[in-house]
Amino acid sequence: MTETIKKQSPESIGITFLVFLGMICLFFYAVEMVAPIVLATLLFFLIDPLVTFLQKFGIPRAASSILLMLFAMFAIFAICFVIYDGGAKLTAQMPQYSQKIRGIIDSLARRAASFQKNTERLLPATPLPADTQKVQVVTSEASTLGSTLFRGVNSVFSMIANLLLIPILSVFFILEKKYLRIHFKLSLGETFPQERVCSEISAMVRAYFFGNLIVGLLTSIVFWALFWVLGLENSLVLALLAGFLNLIPIFGAFIGGILPAAQALLQFDHFSQIIVIFSASILLHVIVNSVVIPKMIGSRINVNASAATLGLIFWGWVWGGLGLLLAIPLMALVRIGLSTHRRTLPWSNLIAENSDFSVLKVWKNEKPVAGSR
Asked: Tell me, what DSSP letter sits at residue 343?
């Protein structure tokens, strides 16, 4: 179906720009308030289909939601413990890393000094007058120990409180789903496609989470086999880290290649072995990100590469590391939100990998395009 839509007035464009600017300010300055709500909402869309499924077996909605939330928290803490234990082992080896790196730097310094001496023999330098200059070192006053400890303790308590409030808020969303749906329908109006939006968000969140979980586990198994064949120590922890670093697009592959290369630097004396391990890790990450993830997750997420990269830049600037982890699903949420109205559908198509031309935006004095899909 093709519709002709008039151009927006300058006032409408100005209001849209102000709303967009206000949303950016809200996400940037109120991150401690907005981020837990966004995470709780994503967790709600992830857990709610499982709660609905368990209801068919006579399990009450409240009991199933609490049990699933506790299971999810236990799984997250177990994975974090395994990674923390491996990280502690790697940290204990830091003196050996520094000694190895110091030896490499000393070797490079000796070669540079030898090259400099040979150059000076061929091209003797003209002596320059030695002028004595007074250098003043300006040091800033360090913050007191008490204020530093207070800020650190305050940050830790704030993080723990948010981690506890996120699953609690998700449980409340699940228990009050029926009433929330009614209130949203009354607030947004009858024309808002609430069922379609909720269905798309739920499918997107489940595809992103379970898809990345399956890909991360399979990739970790492949990495573990690769590191075991190459004789790397701490191969299990390195494989888990390398596998789940795919959650961070672009940067995760590079970090996932550095970690096994650092372990190889500690174990092996030949630089070629380090290059082989680093190259193999990067190559495997590229294959997973370019072939496996688009086939398993790309169709449900429906975010193109340009929008994903811009999302990494924007959400990384707004929310830091958390923004990098959530950049792809957040861009998918933006795409779904923009697709709810015919005036914003072209902006949704700019983000989408597979554009939706069910409603075409045709400017004044232009002929409608029929049969586009």
From this structure: T
Give how far Cα 276 sits from Cα of 31, 100, 287, 354, Å: 42, 19, 16, 37
Same domain, 311 and 293: no
Q: Based on the domain organization, do 49 and 102 belong to the same domain?
A: yes
Greater pLDDT, 197 or 321: 197
Reported as a pLDDT band with limits 50, 70 and 90, residue 372 is very low
- 273/256 Cα distance (integer angstroms): 17
User: Number of structural domains, the chain?
Assistant: 3
**pLDDT per residue over 240-250, tens digit each?**
888 877 777 66
Residue-range definition of the domain harbouring residue 295 = 209-301
The domain boundary, picked from 301, 324, 342, lies at: 301
In 3D space, the residue among 198, 199, 245, 194 whose CA is nearest the CA of residue 223 turns out to be 245
Higher pLDDT among residues 296 and 124, named by residue: 296
Q: Which residue has the tokens 């340009």?
A: 306
Do 319 and 172 fall into the same domain? no
User: Is 174 found in the same domain as 99?
Assistant: yes
**pLDDT value for 2:** 45
Reported as type and span, the H/E element at residue 8 is: none
The three-state DSSP-derived secondary structure of 191-252 is CCCHHHHHHHHHHHHHHHHHHHHHHHHHHHHHHHHHHHHHCCCCHHHHHHHHHHHHHCCCHH
Average pLDDT, the chain: 75
CA distance 153 to 351: 41
Q: What are the Cα distances from residue 338, in Å, to 160, 189, 345, 352?
A: 34, 16, 6, 11
Say what the pLDDT of residue 366 is: 42
Residue 136 forms part of a structural domain: no
Residue 345, pLDDT above cutoff 70: yes
Say if CB 329 and CB 351 are below 8 A apart.
no
Cα(173)–Cα(69) distance, rounded to whole angstroms? Answer: 12
Closest CA to 209 of 23, 25, 47: 47
CA distance 159 to 31: 12
Task: Indicate if the pLDDT at residue 361 is higher than 50.
Answer: no
Which of 262, 278, 301 is at the close of a domain?
301
- Cα-atom radius of gyration of the chain, to the nearest Å? 27
Residues 96 and 188 in one domain: yes
